[in-house]
C-alpha cells in the first residue's frame, strides 16, 4: 500500500534520515519504535507528504506520492501528528467536519454524504456525546479521540498516528489501541503508528519497524524484532522477559527494562 525507498532527509546540513526504506501492506498495522530524536516523526511526515525527502521516493498504491493532488491524497491518507492544535473555540463536531475537507467543492460546503460520514465517525469512536463541546474543554484522552474521529471522517485507506497514546491514562491507552485495532479490522484500514511502549507495540502490531538515529535497525514480525540484541543496540537496555499467563493475541511475553547498558555504537 505504501512503500518508501532510500529516503534521505537533512535539516541545515545535518542528516536526520539516511537511506531508509519502508513498506506497509494493505490492512496491516505497522508500528515504528526507536529512541527519542531518532527520526520517527520525520519519517512519518515524509511517508504522508508533509515533508519532501532530499532523495528517495515514496509510492502510495504503486504511484509516486507527488503524482497525487492534495485533495486526492487526503481522501486516501490521514495523519495525526505528535502535536496538534485546534482553534480554541472549535467544537468536536466542527473538528470532525474538517475531516471532510478533501470531499468539498470550491465553497467548502458540506453535502449530505459528508454529514453522514461525520455522524458515522462520531458513532464509531463513541464521541457523539461530546459533539457540541469545545475542543479546549476536553481532557487529553477525549481530545485524542476527537482527532482520531476527524481522521475517520476523512475515510482514508491508510492512517498515520504519531504516539496516539502518549499522556493518556492506561484506560484511555487501551481504548485508543482497541479502537485502532477495531478500525483496522472492520474497515481494513492500514495503520502506521509510532509507539514508545514496546509491550503495546508487540500486542497491537503485525510488524515492527525499529530505528536507530537516522536509520532502520530491523523490520519484521514482532517475535523476530523484539530480541535482546535490539533492546541493547537500539535502546541501550537489558530487558527482563516474563511469560504472560493470559493469551494476548499472538504475543505471550511481557518486557520490563532491567538496566541501562553501554551505548552500542554500531
Ligand atoms: N525543524 C527542525 N529543526 C531542527 N531539527 C529538527 C527539526 N525537526 C526535527 N529535528 C531534529 O531531527 C531529529 C529527529 O526528530 P524527530 O521528531 O523525527 O524524532 P522522533 O524519533 O520522532 O523523536 P520523539 O520520540 O522524541 O518524538 C531530532 O534530532 C530533532 O531535533
Ligand atoms: Mg516524534
TrEMBL record:
It is a peripheral membrane protein. It comes from the Bacteria. Residues 2-238 form the ABC transporter domain. It is found in: Cell membrane. CDD domains: ABC_Iron-Siderophores_B12_Hemin (cd03214). It holds the Pfam family ABC_tran. One of its GO terms (molecular function) is ATP binding. PROSITE patterns: ABC_TRANSPORTER_2. Coiled coil: none annotated. Keywords: ATP-binding, Cell membrane, Ion transport, Iron, Iron transport, Membrane, Nucleotide-binding, Transport. PANTHER family: FERRICHROME TRANSPORT ATP-BINDING PROTEIN FHUC, IRON(3+)-HYDROXAMATE IMPORT ATP-BINDING PROTEIN FHUC. This is ABC transporter ATP-binding protein. It comes from Diplocloster modestus.
Amino acid at each position: 500500500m505504501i512503500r518508501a525507498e532510500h529516503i534521505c532527509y537533512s535539516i541545515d546540513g545535518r542528516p536526520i534520515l539516511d537511506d531508509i526504506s519502508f513498506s506497509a501492506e494493505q490492512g496491516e498495522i505497522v508500528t515504528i519504535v526507536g529512541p527519542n530524536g531518532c527520526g520517527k516523526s520525520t519519517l512519518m511526515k515524509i511517508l504522508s507528504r508533509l515533508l519532501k525527502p532530499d532523495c528517495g521516493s515514496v509510492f502510495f498504491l504503486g504511484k509516486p506520492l507527488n503524482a497525487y493532488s492534495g485533495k486526492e491524497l487526503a481522501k486516501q491518507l490521514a495523519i495525526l501528528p505528535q502535536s496538534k492544535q485546534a482553534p480554541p473555540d472549535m467544537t468536536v463536531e466542527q473538528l470532525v467536519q474538517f475531516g471532510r475537507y478533501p470531499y468539498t467543492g470550491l465553497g467548502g460546503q458540506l453535502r449530505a454524504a459528508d454529514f453522514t460520514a461525520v455522524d458515522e465517525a462520531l458513532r464509531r469512536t463513541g464521541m457523539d456525546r461530546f459533539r457540541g463541546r469545545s475542543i479546549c474543554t476536553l481532557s487529553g484522552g477525549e481530545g485524542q479521540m476527537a482527532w482520531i474521529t476527524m481522521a475517520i471522517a476523512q475515510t482514508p485507506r491508510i492512517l498515520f498516528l504519531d504516539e496516539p497514546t502518549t499522556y493518556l491514562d492506561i484506560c484511555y491507552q487501551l481504548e485508543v489501541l482497541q479502537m485502532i485495532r477495531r478500525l483496522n479490522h472492520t474497515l481494513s484500514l492500514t495503520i502506521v503508528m509510532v509507539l514508545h511502549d514496546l509491550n503495546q507495540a508487540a500486542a497491537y502490531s503485525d510488524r515492527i519497524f525499529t530505528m536507530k538515529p537516522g536509520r532502520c535497525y530491523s523490520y519484521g514480525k514482532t517475535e523476530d524484532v523484539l530480541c535482546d540484541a535490539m533492546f541493547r543496540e537500539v535502546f541501550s537496555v537489558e530487558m527482563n522477559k516474563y511469560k504472560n499467563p493470559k493469551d494476548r493475541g499472538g504475543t505471550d511475553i511481557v518486557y520490563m527494562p532491567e538496566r541501562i547498558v553501554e551505548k552500542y555504537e554500531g
